[in-house]
Write a structure and sequence with these properties.
mainly alpha; binds zinc ion; 2 domains; rod-shaped; two-stranded antiparallel sheet
Length: 102
């Protein structure tokens, strides 16, 4: 009978150690995440409010912010891809329109 009690105590201690060990691992993981926040936030870059999407002028290839770019009204004809095109200035927009229309 005493042997059974010892056995149960050893079993209880074993599970207690296992529980504490897993808790420590979890805690270590949490601490690592807290100390290194780079691992946690892959989306929403902190500078997203300041920086904006860059687009390329379809005519000359210069990069400019999307808000400053001229967006061509995509006259998507059947058979052609309805591509959204951006330009750095009206001259390039008109020039590109002339080359594609001709
Ligand atoms: Zn351009």
């Amino acid at each position: 009978m005493r042997a059974l009690i010892y056995f149960l105590i050893i079993l209880a201690v074993f599970f207690l150690v296992l529980f504490v060990y897993s808790r420590l691992q979890q805690l270590k993981h949490n601490i690592r995440d807290t100390l290194d926040p780079k691992n946690e936030t892959p989306e929403t870059p902190p500078t997203s409010s300041k920086e904006e999407k860059m687009v390329t002028c379809h005519y000359c290839g210069v990069h400019l912010p999307k808000s400053e770019a001229l967006k061509s009204e995509a006259l998507s004809e059947p058979g052609t891809e309805p591509a959204e095109r951006f330009y750095c200035c009206t001259a390039h927009r008109d020039a590109d329109k002339n080359t594609t229309d001709a």
